[in-house]
C-alpha cells in the first residue's frame, strides 16, 4: 500500500518538542501505518533556537508566528508543545483551519478553556488527541487488559503517587523558557496540572470516572526570582497536592504529588486492589507490571487460586501491548517509545475510522477533576466533579 505524506507543523522547541519529533522521525520504522510524517515546519518565537532545532530534527523550515502554520497548505497536523496558556488559542485556530491536532497535557488552563477546545474540534470534525503518553507504556496497557478481562474483579482501592524533587531549592527561579511550569499565569497550576493530570487520566482509564474529591495543596517556597525580570515575585502554583477521591464504581482513591520528594526524579506509581486481585506499576521500572491473582477461571467459574502471590511480569513478550513492533523478548523499550506508540495509535485511528483515545473530550474530563481538586483545596471541603 502506498504511503500518504502527513505534513507536520510542530509548535515549541522544548523537551516535549524533542520527544514528539523523535516519534515522527521513527514511526514508520516500527509501525505499518499508511501515513508517513513529513516534518514541514518548526515554530518558536526564539528564531535562533528554532533554526537549531530544525537542523537537528530535519524540519524543512522555521516559523516564528504559529498563525502562518494555519494557512499552510502543506501542513496537515498541528502539534502543540507550548506552555499551557497558549493551548486554547492555537487549538481553536487549528480546528477552524481544518488541521488534525495533537496537544500536550494538560489540555488547557482550566475546564472552561478545555470546553471551548472540545467545541471547536467537534464542530470542525478534525482528529484530535491529548498527549497522555503514559497510557502507551506497555505495562500500563497490559494493566488495562487485565482489568478489562475481569481479573481484578470489583475495585476497592486505587492509590497513585507522582513525586519529583527538582524545585526544592529556593534559588530555582520561575518563568522563562525552562521554568514556565512554576509560573501560575503561564502553567495554570503546579503539580496538579503537570503531574497529577497524568495520574488522573491513568486512573480513570483503568478504574472509571472520579465523582468527587477533597484536596490539600501547599506552596513551600512563597516567592521566587523571575527568570526574565529578575524581580522576586509571589509563587502562585501548587508545589504539592494530596487528595482523596471517590470513583463511580464505589471504590476509594488516594493521590499524592509533589516536587519536594528528595531523591525522587519521576516516581510515578499506581496500585489497584480488587476482590479478585491487585495490580501495581512503578514508572522507575517501566518494563514490569506486578499482578496478584486471588481468583482464577476454571471451567468458566471463578475459584480461589492455589498459586496466590505477587507476580512480577516482564512486559517484553511479543503478545504484550506494542512489543511485537520492537525487539526480541527480554529486551526493553523506553520513555521515548510511548510517543511512538501514541502516534501510531492516533494515525491508525484516522485510517480505520475509530478515533484513538484520549481525545479532547477525554482530556476535558481530566481537566474537570483537576479543577475540582484545586477548588477543594481552596474551600477545604469535598467538591463534586462537574459532569
Number of domains: 2
Strand order of the largest sheet: 18-15-14-13-7-12-11-8-19
- At the first level of CATH, the class of the largest domain is Alpha Beta
Name the CATH homologous superfamily of the largest domain. Dihydrodipicolinate Reductase, domain 2
Task: Please explain how this structure is put together.
The termini are far apart. The protein contains 10 helices and 19 strands. The mean pLDDT is 96. It has 2 domains: 4-134, NAD(P)-binding Rossmann-like Domain (Rossmann fold), CATH 3.40.50; 135-379, Dihydrodipicolinate Reductase, domain 2, CATH 3.30.360.10. The chain has a 9-stranded mixed beta sheet. Strands 3-2-1-4-5-6 form a 6-stranded parallel beta sheet, with helices on both faces. A two-stranded antiparallel sheet has the order 9-10. By secondary structure, the protein is α/β, with parallel strands linked by helices. The protein has helices spanning 15-30, 47-57, 67-70, 87-96, 111-124, 138-148, 184-187, 191-207, 335-352, 360-379, and strands at 4-11, 35-43, 61-63, 77-80, 100-104, 128-131, 155-163, 210-218, 223-225, 232-234, 240-247, 252-258, 267-274, 277-282, 288-293, 295-298, 301-304, 310-314, 383-384. Helix 1 packs across helix 9 (335-352), helix 4 packs parallel to helix 5 and helix 5 (111-124) runs antiparallel to helix 10 (360-379).
